[in-house]
Amino acid sequence: MDEVPDEVLRVAGVSHRYRHVDALVGVELDVTPGECLALLGPNGAGKTTLIGLATGLLAVQSGEVRVCGRDPRKAVTRRHLGVVQQSMGFPRTERVAELVRGAAVRAGRPASAAGPVLTEVGITDLARRRAGKLSGGQQQRVALAMALVGDPDLLLLDEPTVGLDITARRAFWQTIAARRDAGVGIVLTTHIVEEAAAVADRVVVLHGGRVVAADTPAGLSALLPDRTITARTGLDDAALRALPAVLSVQRDDGGDGNRVRVTSNAPETVLRTWLADDPALADLRVEGAGLEQALIALTGNDEKIGVTA
Amino acid sequence: MSTAVVDGKVLGGGVLGVEVAEGLRAILREPTALFFTVLFPVGMFALFASLFGNRPGPAGIPYAATMVATYGTYGVVSVMLTNPGIRTAEDRTTGWLRVKKVSGAPVGATVAAKVISALPYAVLVVLALAAVSLAVVGPVLGIGTALRLTAVLLLGSLPFALLSLAIGFVASPNATAAILSAVLFPMVIASGLWFPPEMLPPFVDGIAPVLPTYQLAQVALGQLTGADVTGNGLVLLLMTAVAGALAGWAYRNLRV
Fold it and tell me: Is residue A201 part of a domain?
């Protein structure tokens, strides 16, 4: 394998246009070896276009895309890539071992490389099964084996855990984590924001083809000043809404009805007055916004985050 | 088998082997479509050879021998015109072709494999015709002639395979099957591959020479009669160039 540069993926000033629609506008991002970057954004954000450029399926119109320092339009560059797509379209007549052996040869590796990867992904029991007989989750694991068998420097994972149960999902991420620890760079798009928050080192949020935020999951969550205060209270809703800096009040329907959720972007101000006015205040808890709330705030869009464009 | 990278380019030798093997397995494991492609010409040949096979045909050759050439043309063209295009269209629409392209494998090797993996089945048609001919009317072709005929039919199937790929690069699998059938059957009939040309309406005589099936059938018949078929061969070569240009254009505009 060639020497890997500092960045396994570099996207510099990339813009891409489909007829009258700007799919990407001046996008800048990079992925270093051993880093996992989650690419999030609502429908039409430009994620699929970005993946298409990184995989060489689309020609760069403006800016520069480099995979391991090379042009991804060249077939030899794509051998640095492992890709798990949402739909792989396996021929139904092929057996799993044949698919992975074929992927090895296409990636310039010996067919015998398939055996260890089948073990690594935990699908040796499926080796002789035909692709047409695989469940959705099994297909995703076969896709992962095919992506890994070429020993890639960069993994592009497009909705990789769709159809996987909890155990399989955990095993999937353990496999990915081992590769990441070995220096493989990872780009992930997913619907499951909690998953992105758990596995990604950095999150890039795309909206309308532009990067609207790029930070660690914790850093992005911290962008949103809103806090949720949950407590038991003796005040009614009107009194709670009258507290300074309260944005909303929601009463918990269960229990005795005294439990409320109050949101505010200045929780200290709320609490100072609330503590003074409400002797019954108890079970107080203050929580920050999650990554999903941060994404919704950033994109102004509460439809599913992470759907590829 | 492995694939080499020379001067930054991927050489597809190993990939071609993998792709051909995949193509052969696909047909072997799900032979239904090809079964009819093989069975239909062989069945028609068996019927007509048993009725007219012993009659003397052109240049004093038994009709059964000329029918091996004409039905051989039909059978080989049928396999090579339908199989590569439909399978390419399927791979394109399911996303499998995209997976291969992203893998860094040369897509040209994938496409070439679609043609190569159909060839054994084209040979199967010719062998089946020869076997039926032997069973129904006895030996009508020498070994040398049979081998020459087979080679001519396989080589001459290239423009049909290229046309098939051109359609498969742009149309859906169902549309590809429909378009190729719509192309195949009128060509086969107008070229006199099912029935002798003298049984067809006179205007067909004017159409036949512009059809590649007619030109291939003439080259095939020439292997039996010894007639000079250089002109037919050149026309077929020109048609191959046209089909190649069409396939090349469709390939360059291929969206996966």
Answer: yes
Question: CB of A166 within 8 Å of any CB in chain B?
Answer: no
Q: What is the pLDDT of residues A94-150, one digit of tens each?
A: 999 999 999 999 998 999 999 999 999 999 999 999 999 999 889 999 999 999 999
- Same structural domain, A91 and A209: yes
Which residue from A79, A91, A105 is facing B1, i.e. has the nearest CB? A105
A93: which chain B residues are within 8 Å (Cβ-Cβ)?
25-26, 29-30
Q: Find the closest chain A residue to B104 by CA distance.
A: A75
Give yes or no for B33 touching A (CB within 8 A): no
Same-domain check for residues A128 and A258? no
The verdict on A155 and A28 lying in the same domain is yes
Q: Please check whether residues A204 and A283 belong to one and the same domain.
A: no
The domain in which residue A230 lies consists of: 225-288
* Cα A2 from chain centre: 28
Q: Is residue A265 part of a domain?
A: yes
Which pLDDT value is given to residue A305?
A: 47
Give the domain-ending residue among A161, A188, A216: A216
B194, B73 in Cβ contact below 8 A?
A: no
In-domain check, residue A305: no
> Does the pLDDT value for residue B4 go beyond 60?
no
Q: Are strands A259-264 and A227-232 parallel, antiparallel or unpaired?
A: antiparallel
Of A199, A216, A233, the residue at which a domain comes to its end is: A216
Chain B residues whose CB is inside 8 A of the A98 CB are 22, 25
Which CATH number do you get for residue A95?
3.40.50.300
Q: Does B8 touch chain A (CB under 8 A)?
A: yes
Residue B202's pLDDT band (cuts 50, 70, 90)? confident
Q: Which residue of B has its CA nearest to A108?
A: B3
Residues A206 and A233 in one domain: no
The whole-angstrom distance between B101's CA and the closest CA on chain A is 8
What pTM value is reported for the model?
Answer: 0.80
Q: Considering only residues 18 to 57 of chain A, which have any Cβ-Cβ distance to chain B shorter than 8 Å?
A: 55-57
Among B1, B22, B93, B102, the residue to mutate for chain A (most A Cβ within 10 A): B102
Question: From the CA of B40, how many Å to the nearest CA of chain A?
Answer: 24
* pLDDT of residue B11 exceeding 50: no
Look at residue A255 and tell me if it is in a domain: yes
Based on the domain organization, do A87 and A178 belong to the same domain? yes
Alpha-carbon distance of A147 to B102, in angstroms, equals: 10
A109 and A239 inside one domain:
no
Whether A105 sits inside 8 A of B2 (CB atoms) is yes
How far apart CA A244 and CA B137 sit, in angstroms, is: 104
**Token output for A271:** 């609490």
> Are A64 and A139 found together in one domain?
yes
Q: Where are the alpha helices (DSSP H) in chain A?
A: 47-54, 75-78, 96-106, 114-121, 136-148, 166-181, 193-199, 217-223, 237-241, 267-277, 291-299
pLDDT at A4: 56
Size of interface A-B (CB pairs under 8 A): 100
- Chain B residue with Cα closest to A131: B26
- Among the partner-chain residues B10, B17, B18, the one whose CB lies closest to the CB of A75 is B10
**Average pLDDT value over all residues in chain A:** 88
CA distance B131 to A39: 62
Q: What phi, psi does A273 have (nearest 5°)?
A: -75, -40
How many domains does chain A fold into? 2
Residue A10 has pLDDT above 50, yes or no: yes
Structure tokens at A214: 């790029």
